[in-house]
Amino acid sequence: MDTEAGRVNPLRDPRDRRLPQIAGPCGLVIFGVTGDLSRKKLIPAIYDLTNRGLLPPGFALIGFGRREWSKKDFEEFAKKCAKERSRTPFREDVWERLAEGLHFVTGTFDNDSGFDALAAQLAELEEAGVTGGNVAFYLSIPPDDFPVVCRQLERTGVADQSGESWRRVVIEKPFGHDLDSARDLNDVVGSVFPEESVFRIDHYLGKETVQNILALRFANQLFEPVWNAHYVDHVQITMAEDIGLGGRAGYYDGIGAARDVIQNHLIQLMALVAMEEPTSFSAHSLREEKIKVLESAALAEPLDKTTARGQYGAGWQGSEKVVGLHEEEGYDPESTTETYAAITLEVHNRRWGGVPFYLRTGKRLGRRVTEIAIVFSRAPHLPFDETMTEELGSNALVIRVQPDEGVTLRFGSKTPGTTMEVRDVSMDFDYGESFTVDSPEAYERLILDVLLGAPSLFPESREVELSWMLLDPVLDNWARKGMPESYPAGTWGPRSADEMLARDGRSWRRP
Ligand code: BG6
Predict the structure, then answer these.
(1) How far is the CA of 369 from the centre of ligand 1 (A)?
(2) Residues 299, 345: contact at Cβ < 8 Å?
(3) What residue's CA is closest to ligand 1, atom 14?
(4) What element of type H or E holds 500?
(5) pLDDT per residue over 53-65, tens digit each?
(6) From the CB of 208, is ligand 1 less than 6 Å away?
(7) For ligand 1, is residue 75 a contact (CB within 6 Å)?
């Protein structure tokens, strides 16, 4: 992954590429700083980066919000977030270091005074030699607010970069709710920030196991020769969650599983699995290959048979009785929002012709698991008695994204005994066992990359638009159909999802 800015920790040998780079002088402004994402992910990740020594001395974190908070109020709030959610142990001395650089600016998006105060604060920090004029603006706010915030950043001049210094903008998903709105958003942001300064977050790309897809494929000789339609029968990408949607109605109702997760995380995973080898790991080469494969991708048809959607009803999550979506607080009782979505993609190129990619995601499913299963074709001939191979399934390579990070290879083996019986066994690689260090949280990696100016792990506008192009026909089709099929909480989704694969003579894995 390339890093264009930032400097190497002088205490470490700069030639050792395994060591992380630390960011140069800069500041980060968070809009939506009191929101869920900021409390649970962003502030804890910034604390973890401070703890790991990866932020510059005096790093400035500026919260922007409507509350009439003093610096001390913001400090208390941020300290609580860091204490409750940081990955690394909480230490007062580390906290003190971060706390010195905290600032809070009170303002609302449609009122100039807050942004004028922000501009003054940023100028002060630059003059004091804290930020070197380098600032990233993190928009952890609803997309409807992007235009007004971007206009304010433009009006006050804080989006302008001058000389050597940089200004960047970080955008959280959802990037619109369909292709047209995504284009509009890209235009709005693009009118203020050049594309190379726009960092669109897809936090799945910050996960170690997701980056490992590239290492697995392109650092080894073993897998790539069978990574194609000659050997692969189909690919299953699953992101299952056991949690429900209580408390998230404001965001989720009307959005649904496909927009929330398939448009971004799952299509990105699919692109990493299906793309050709990039010429290098520069952002340009990686994005170019992802774009090529997304351009070759298409929905399998007819959509009524190749897609499925569902909505969870009441059921059991382990030993806990849970309510259905319609009983969750804040949901319209008539809501047709899907909490389960599955689609079938094809990739029209020589490598993948005829190989379906099944993508599924759901809330309140059997357990929390994200995995990519490359399921291989059966051996063309088995020189065994049929009864001896009854227990033999297809070979599969499973990339376990979470929670048991690793890779599993499933293949057939002779069972001990006098007969030649063959059944499935598996060989496992576990991150926890092979490496002694914990994986950083996705947001640690991504926030650091923003500050370093390393864009490889951030989808660019064309990728986002291509993902919507794939998804829009499905969403239009579902919008005409009314209520999704119900599935009991704690199960593996609606019957139509099983039927979708059964029609192709296949079945979903039960991870
Ligand atoms: C988010 C979705 O992008 O990812 C959530 O909006 C989902 O609905 C979350 O719960 C899951 O993230 P992770 O990292 O826990 O798999």
Answers:
(1) 11
(2) yes
(3) 204
(4) helix 495-502
(5) 999 999 999 999 9
(6) no
(7) no
> Ligand 1: distance of its center to the CA of 227 in Å?
28
Residue 345 phi/psi, 5-degree rounding, is -110, 150
How many beta carbons lie within 10 A of that of residue 332, not counting itself? Answer: 12
CA distance 358 to 377: 16
CA 272 to chain centre: 13
| CA–centroid distance, residue 253 to ligand 1 (Å) | 15
CB 141 within 8 A of CB 33: no
- Calpha distance 205→404 (Å, rounded): 17
Burial-class residue 1 by CB neighbours within 10 Å (0-12, 13-18, 19+): middle
Cα diameter, the chain: 83
pLDDT of the residue at 2 = 42
In short, whether 260's Cβ falls inside 6 Å of ligand 1 is yes
Question: Do residues 267 and 470 touch, judged by C-beta distance below 8 A?
Answer: yes
Residue with tokens 């969870």: 312
Distance 401 CA to ligand 1 centre (A): 13
Regions of the chain short of the pLDDT cut 70: 1-19
pTM above 0.90, yes or no: yes
Give the length of the chain: 511
Q: How far is the C-alpha of 98 from the C-alpha of 325, rounded, in Å? A: 40
With a 6 Å cutoff on the Cβ, whether 241 touches ligand 1 is yes
Mutate to test the pocket of ligand 1, among 171, 203, 370 (most ligand atoms within 8 A of CB): 203
Q: Which helix H or strand E contains 29, and what residues bound it?
A: strand 27-31
> Domains in the chain, please, with CATH?
27-172 (3.40.50.720), 205-376+458-502 (3.30.360.10)
DSSP helix/strand/coil, 360: strand
Pairing mode of beta strands 232-240, 198-200: unpaired
Phi/psi for 489 (5° steps) reads -55, 145
Output the CA–CA distances (angstroms, integers) from residue 431 to 60, 168, 234, 406, 434, in the order listed. 34, 33, 26, 5, 5
- Nearest atom (ligand 1) to Cα of 368: 16
> How does pLDDT run across 44-53, given as a tens digit for each residue?
999 999 999 9
Question: What pLDDT was estimated at residue 430?
Answer: 95
Contact 79, 99 (CB under 8 A): yes
